[in-house]
Amino acid sequence: MLTPTEQRQRLRAFLAGTECRSPASVFDALSARVARSVGYEIGILAGSVASNTTLAAPDLIVLTLTEFADQVRRIQRASDLSLIVDADHGYGNALNVMRTVEECEHAGVSCLSIEDTALPTPFGSRGESFVSIEEGVGKMKAALAARRDPSLVIAGRTSAIRGEGIEGAISRLRAYAQAGVDCVFVVGLESLGQLEAIRAATGLPVIVGSAPASITREQFAAAGGRVLLQGHQPTAAVVRTLTEVYTHLFSGGAPAELKPRLASPEQMDAATRAADYASWQRAWLR
After folding, report:
1. Residue 206 near residue 183, CB atoms below 8 Å
2. Which of 82, 110, 179, 185 is most open to solvent, judged by the fewest CB atoms within 10 Å of its CB?
């Protein structure tokens, strides 16, 4: 297992490279262990996924920082993924951002993004709204000041393309780059040209939260895109599978009929490190 600093250094080396990768969308210790076992080195815990799986609630900023950080710790105990986390708006103002960085760094994340969306949704708001660039810059500077391990990656995030156009988004991301963030995170990208403009304006690696499917991974890489999110299908797959399995059993279906759709005992043992625990039992509980 890599140490948290080594996990962060691995992510930094990747961001400084020329490839574009997609992280595994993970939500708990078991999913992280399985993702790592198939070869993923980078994972992501999204705020929406954390809310879905921790509270069974939608992404409306009802999850607390401590609940979020606790889930991160569970994930990091189970794997050495270089974990990117979506820390939303930092759970408040610039001072709350500092606490968010402290908790997430202590929990073992490799990168956290702070966004400039006005969250939670203000009373009377119609659609997405954003804090001022000045407030956003204050949050980025607070995040940078709060980190203790210089290898921790701070990403400045915006989805302002949807509300302010590409010019507005570039103004925000350029300001965050000048504040000192390590990379930028953009949601709502509409074209390869927009990505190229963001890269030129900031000079930083870009994490892309959503983009047209017509853009190839090679094009993303050439334009400075280093991380491309692909959605959070594993969480949706789990909900569907649970529904189908529970429905089958509740309706009187035989457990044996589910066997072709289930992980084998060997797969479950691998995911839970059963061999390691058996070895420890023999060594210390005899």
Report:
1. yes
2. 179
